[in-house]
Design goal:
The protein has one helix and 24 strands. With about 290 residues, it is mostly beta strands. The protein has a single domain, classed as Neuraminidase, CATH 2.120.10.30. Strands 1-24-23-22 form a four-stranded antiparallel β-sheet, with no helix packed on it. Strands 2-3-4-5 form a four-stranded antiparallel β-sheet, with no helix packed on it. A hairpin with a 5-residue loop joins strand 20 and strand 21. The longest helix is centred in the C-terminal third of the chain and has 6 residues. The model has no long low-confidence stretch (mean pLDDT about 95).
C-alpha cells in the first residue's frame, strides 16, 4: 500500500479526528457535521459506524477500556462506541453557546489536549485546554481561531499546535511530569497560500505529518520545521491523520465534503472517505487517556 488507496468509501461532511485503538484493533474517526462515529478494522477489512447522541469532534480510548473520552458540544464525557450514547462529565464554555470543541489528542503522559472554536470559523474566540488524568481541566491558551493538530514529540516534551485560521503551526514545550506548557514558538506556516494546516500525526522519527485543508496534500515536517516531503492527495480538503494497524506502519487520512461544489465532488470521489498509504516509517505509539 505504498500508493494512496481509499480504504473506506464514505460521504463524510467533515470527517475528522482519526485515532488508532490498539485494544480493539480498529481505527475510529468522527463525522462532525454528519453526527457519526466511524470505524475500520484493518485485520478483517470490516467497517461500520454509529449515529451519535451529541455533536462529537474528537474521541480517544480510555485506560480502563470502558468507552471513549469524547469532546462534544456540551463538553467532555464518556462515549459508548457501540451505541453512540454520551455521558457528560465536564461542561466546557457553557457561557459561549456559539463555541464548540474541535481537534483533540493525548500526549505521552496520558493527558488529553483539545481546542475550542467559534462556529463562524473567522473569530478568535477559541482556546486550548488540557485534561489531566484526574479530570482536572486547565485552560492553557486563549484567543485561538481554529485549534488543530495537538500532538506531541516522541520525547513527550513538545506539543505541536495548529491554528488553521492564522495558517500557523507552533510548538510549545511541555513539562513531562505536570503537563504545564512553557514557551510557545513558531514552527511552520502556510501564510500567503490558499490552504492551511489542519490535523497531524507524529512518526517514530519525530517528524510531523500535517494535513492541509484546501491544499490537496499532506506535508511531512522535520523537527526543525523544514519541509521534508509533500504527498499530493486526490481530495481538496484532507482533515487529519493517524498511524494505525498492528505495526503502526499505515497512515490513515480523513477528509471532508462540506464547502465543495458538485463539480469538484464529481472530480474527487474520495472526498469524505478514509484514505491510507504506507509512508515507509512507523507511527508514534500513544497511550489511552489515563483518566
Amino acid at each position: 500500500m505504498s500508493e494512496m488507496v481509499c480504504v473506506v468509501p464514505r460521504t463524510n461532511a467533515l470527517g475528522e479526528g482519526p485515532v488508532w485503538d490498539a485494544a480493539r484493533g480498529r481505527l475510529y474517526w468522527v463525522d462532525i457535521k454528519g453526527g457519526r462515529l466511524e470505524w475500520f478494522e484493518p485485520e478483517t477489512g470490516a467497517d461500520g459506524g454509529v449515529d451519535l447522541e451529541v455533536q462529537t469532534t474528537s474521541v480517544v480510548p480510555r485506560a480502563n477500556g470502558i468507552g471513549f473520552l469524547a469532546a462534544a458540544r456540551p463538553g467532555l464525557g464518556v462515549l459508548d462506541p457501540d451505541t453512540g450514547a454520551f455521558e457528560l462529565k465536564i461542561e466546557v464554555e457553557a457561557d459561549r453557546p456559539d463555541n464548540r470543541p474541535n481537534d483533540g489528542n493525548v500526549d505521552l503522559g496520558g493527558r488529553y489536549w483539545f481546542g475550542t472554536m467559534h462556529e463562524s470559523y473567522g473569530r478568535f474566540e477559541g482556546a486550548l485546554y488540557r485534561l489531566d488524568p484526574d479530570w482536572t481541566l486547565t485552560r492553557c491558551i486563549t484567543g485561538m481561531g481554529i485549534p488543530n493538530t495537538l500532538v506531541c514529540s516522541p520525547d513527550g516534551r513538545r506539543l505541536y499546535i495548529a491554528d488553521s485560521t492564522r495558517l500557523t503551526l507552533e510548538m510549545a514545550s511541555i513539562d513531562p511530569e505536570t503537563g504545564a506548557l512553557g514557551r510557545v514558538e513558531p514552527f511552520a506556516d502556510t501564510q500567503g497560500q490558499s490552504y492551511g494546516p489542519d490535523g497531524s500525526a507524529v512518526d517514530a522519527e519525530g517528524f510531523l505529518w500535517n494535513c492541509q485543508w484546501g491544499g490537496s496534500r499532506i506535508v511531512r515536517y522535520a523537527p526543525d520545521g523544514g519541509v521534508d516531503k509533500v504527498v499530493p492527495l486526490p481530495v481538496t480538503n484532507p482533515t487529519s491523520c493517524a498511524f494505525g494497524g498492528a505495526g503502526l506502519d499505515t497512515l490513515y487520512i480523513t477528509s471532508a465534503r462540506e464547502t465543495l461544489s458538485a463539480e469538484t465532488l464529481a472530480r474527487e470521489p474520495w472526498s469524505g472517505s478514509l484514505m491510507a498509504f504506507k509512508p515507509g516509517v512507523k507511527g508514534l505509539a500513544l497511550p489511552p487517556f489515563a483518566g
